[in-house]
Structures are given as C-alpha cells and as structure tokens.
Amino acid sequence: MSTSKFSRWIPSTFATRAFLIITLIEASVDIGIEAVIFAKGEFQRSLFDDDSHDGTNEKAALPVYLAIFTAAHLYQTILAIDALANKNTIQVIGLCIFNLMFLFYSVVQINEVRDAFSAIGTMDSMIYTLSLIVPIMIACTEVMYCLLAWKLYREFGWVIFKSLGADRRIKKMYLAYQVFVCLCKFDLFFFFAFSLQFLLLVLAKADIERWLTLAAMPFTICLMVAGYTAARREIKWLMGMFIAGCVAGSAYFCFKLFRIYLHSSTREDYETAKASLTVFSVLSLLLLLFTIVQSAIVMRNFGRGLKFNMTAKARSAKAEEAGYDFDSVDGLHYKLSSAKSSRLSID
After folding, report:
1. Measured in Å, how far apart are the chain's first and last C-alpha atoms?
2. Of 152, 156, 183, 332, which residue has the fewest beta carbons closer than 10 angstroms?
3. pTM to 2 decimals?
4. Is the separation of the CB atoms in 175 and 181 below 8 Å?
C-alpha cells in the first residue's frame, strides 16, 4: 500500500482525530475493565462446560455477555476508522446510536455482574465500582460523540459536495446508498451477537439447531457482501437475491423469538438468556426490515447516474495519486478520458 493510499486512513482534521481518539480511549478503558471483571471471577471453567446449560449458571452467562460487550467495542472502533476514512456521515450517526445502546446495556450489566459474583460468593466493592465506571465512561463518550457528529456532518458534507457536485438528485441517491451500507454493517454485528449467545448459553452440542445456527453465520457474511456488491455495481438480480435473503433472515428471527418464548416456561436455559436473546433478536429483526426497505430504494436508483459519479470520483482520486495535474492539458485529457470510459461502462 502506497503512502498516499495509507494516508486516507489517518485522520487529518481536529474533529476526525478527536472522534477516533475518543473511540480508542473508550474501547481501551471499557475492555480493560471487562478483562478485570472476567479475571476476578472463576468463569473460565464454566464458559464452554457442558454443564453450563442448566439455565441457572450465571458463571456461564456473564463471560458471554462480557465477550459480546468487548467485541462490540472492537467493532465500533473498526467502524469509526472506516467512517472517517470514507467520510461517511451516516455511519458516524449510526455509531452515536450504537454507543447509546452500549450505555443502556452497560446499566443492565451492573446487575448481571452483581448476580454472577454473588453466585460464586466473591462480590466486593471493587467489582461493583468497576461495573459503575463503564456506563459513566460511555455516557461521557456519547456526549462528545454527539457534539463531534455535527462538526463531522458539516465537514464531510463539503467533501461530498466537491466530489459529487451540486446535483441534489445524485446526493439524495448517494445518501440512500450510504444508509444501506451502514445498515448492512450493523446487521452483521447483531446477527453474530445473537448467534453466539444462542450457541453458548442455550444450545447443547447434540442439538441439531446448534449446527444450523453455525451454518447460518458464514451465509450471513456472504449475504452482506452480495448486498454491498449489488449496490456498488448496480446488479439488479444480485440485489434481488439479497432482498430474498433478508426476508428469509426476518423469518429466521421470528422463528427464534417463537422458540425463545415457547421454551422459556419449560426450559431454564431459555429462561436465563431470554431477556438478552429477545433484545438482540428484536433489534436484528428491525434492522433487517429497515434493510429490506432501503434495498428497494437503492435498487430503484440503479441506472440513474450514481454509479457513474462514484466511478468518476474513484478514477479522479486514482489519477491524482498517480501524479496527474488536472490544471495541465495532459491531466485534463486523462480526466475527460476517464469520465468517457466510465460513462461507456454504465451504458
């Protein structure tokens, strides 16, 4: 990777640097606290133990929740870097909402930590204090996120204006495209978070549903990649397959919700994880429904000029990296040739 290509991943303004630094600080502090909480409890033996599916074992449940919380912070950091590099305002707003979900979950986690440590008889004031620091840290981060989001909205809006021009129709289509891509990224996280909880807290190794859930995970990755490719390259048949996959995913989560409440009164393993599984399955279902609607909007925009504008933008950036000066005759000829070839590729 050349220096010019690598530089786009390094924040260059005060707002982008502040956003990334705040994200890294929040992730470092919270993951550190989660690691201390895990190390303080005797959870290691119970996490993958077959006996942990008895439904009353908080020792098995808490490590899973801590792991998902840690994974969420890592995923948030990756999405923050991606949003800043690609000047994606919608993803920045999505991260603000995602972080707000952290805040609600971290408050709930206080009781989960207390119950788990009370079960093993090692609850002390230090653990309780650490569990309180997490929501305080996230709340402070959320305030700074919201303040910086407005600054980044104006900053990225100007960059997009220079790249795509003043055509409101093109900018509206690009906004729909950004929303779609952002939804796909959050779909992926919530599906995996739900699946991991279901696998580790409810399903035993001999359960056939365990293997079906495992098989659905790589399928989900392929589905989201297909959706992104279809939107980027404006492939209608592939977008149609993506929408069909999202409809199947919605049916999958409706089935899972039915199973959770069907067995919660008769099986203690379902009852123990019911609250968390319900939250993640409902969020995943809602996100999929939004994704289906947004997919239809994006597909309706196929062939209306967005692909040409994004392709021309990418070619111009590539030419500038190669050292072409668009103020010169040769550079202008390159730009016009690139635009012409892009238009021909659309047709």
Report:
1. 32
2. 332
3. 0.79
4. no
Structure tokens at 205: 């190794």
Amino acid at 279: V
Smallest CA-to-CA distance from 190 within 76, 84, 82 is with 76
